[in-house]
Fold this protein.
Amino acid sequence: MTKHTSNAALRREKTHYIIGFTGAATLTVLAYASVTAQWFSATQTAAFVLVLAVLQLFVQSYYFLHLGDEPKPRWKSWSYLYSMVMMIIVVMGSLWVMYNLNYRMGMTGPQMEAHMLEQNKKGF
Amino acid sequence: MTSHNTHSAAKQSNASLGLWLYIMTDIMVFASLFATYVILRHGTNGGPDASEIFNLELILVSTFLLLFSSLTSGMANIAARSGNARGALVWLGATITLGIGFLTLELYEFGELILHGHGPAHSAFLSAFFVLVGTHGLHILIGIIWAIALGDYISKKGLTPDGVRRLGLFTIFWHFLDLVWIFIFTVVYLLGAIT
């Protein structure tokens, strides 16, 4: 379709790149500064930089990869969204399982028994 | 639309979906490497943890090298689609240079770590770190080789429909690598520096 890309569309794309780059650079600097200058407590900083990373993911996906900007049927956007969901399941699922495992392995025998009895009372 | 245009449009659309499917599977590779890293990052085996060994200033520089190269690759793509072969080659050259700069800093970082005895064999944390960041670096290396081959093609044959199409695909691949890096920068380096 290269021959059919109009000048207006290319100019729009160029503007998108400038906006996307400025946004990504700002978010990167903010995240870096929040860690090195220690604006917040450790937990708050961790949450802050993760939120900034997700924001930057959206900024770059829209302005650089032009996702959500394609004509129907939106194969790219939907398959992208799908793999994001799968990624979250893999990462969060692994973390959850391993955290749980460590938590339980960290207990002594009697503690574990008491804990399981406690869980049983809840009907699990 | 002539039959030639219809054919090249179909080729474009198929190739772009093909690359997209590849990226989807690559996302799963990185997802498992991220999960592994996050789980093993406290397994330091008595050695250093993330807050002790990373040079954040260096990482900020390489983050910006990669971000700039993402922008220049987009500009190369736009120049090619507006029929500006010279512009496309200049922007592609800038992308390659920035990519090599990024990779050089990464190799320097790896070298320093290994020289100080913090190699991948030292602990689970370091193994996971080297595999995650090294896999991304390997992708960057492949991207650089791809970009050099593209530059060679365009400088010899000009902006053929195939050349423009391939440059478009390369740009998507390169943007994707920057996306992955956002999370390496955040999860490995920034979260690692928080004590």
Chain B has one domain: 26-193. Chain B has a mean pLDDT of 92.
